[in-house]
């Protein structure tokens, strides 16, 4: 789902308008405890907790959400989930649930085409379908990433993920007002690019004193991973390949997580 850093700037600024900038460092919430634990694991701490949250959401949908008639009808109207969450659900043995959803979705899509509704939609479509119509005339069929994501704005798991990210970013930044949390972040692999950007925007608007520790901690984590990647590459040279291997051998994965986020989040 398309992320908008400007949207986070507006959200942080609006939430902070007319409110105090300082927050007590102590936080005993579930999000705070989860973030503290995630700092000791490989990967972006926010990504780790988001993935855990999505696991619970999918588990709940498999056994409870699917049986909710109103929710199921909403899914059918949306033509199911986004590509990422469709295939994540498929890997969780949701064959029957997905078959029911997509049977109804396909039935509606066939009916639309039979009754001319598809043509009408094509004529007024604001998303990538309209883009395809334009590009047909230019002999180009590839919709842009921005147009493609318009198809999946109703995915409930994408909305759940966004809500989880927002809560976690706010919690993380407020925790960074304490030295204990700063130490935990320093010991973690660091935040992925996107969550670091969101955290910086929120810190600027709400907890300014957390911004410098956030930047300094991220800088140190990036440098450590970079050093490990350089060591990994050095040991790929036959002259040094017999040297003992350490944590630098997984540094390529940590580097990818810093740049692209943990696998399965987006």
Structural notes for this entry:
The protein has one domain (29-115, 154-260). The protein is mainly alpha-helical and 266 residues long. The protein is built from 14 helices and no strands. It has helices at residues 5-16, 30-38, 45-63, 69-77, 83-90, 95-114, 117-124, 128-137, 145-149, 156-175, 179-187, 193-206, 211-235, 251-260. α3 (45-63) runs antiparallel to α10 and α12 packs antiparallel against α13 (211-235).
Task: Describe the structure concisely.
By secondary structure, this protein is mainly α.
List the helices and strands and how they pair.
Blueprint: H1 5-16, H2 30-38, H3 45-63, H4 69-77, H5 83-90, H6 95-114, H7 117-124, H8 128-137, H9 145-149, H10 156-175, H11 179-187, H12 193-206, H13 211-235, H14 251-260
Helix pairs in contact: 1-12, 2-3, 3-10, 4-6, 10-12, 11-13, 12-13, 13-14
Which structural class should the secondary elements be placed in?
Answer: mainly alpha
What proportion of the residues form beta strands (DSSP E)? under 5%
Number of domains: 1
Number of strands: 0
Shape: globular
Strand count, sense and closure of the main sheet?
none
Name the features.
single chain, 266 residues, mainly alpha
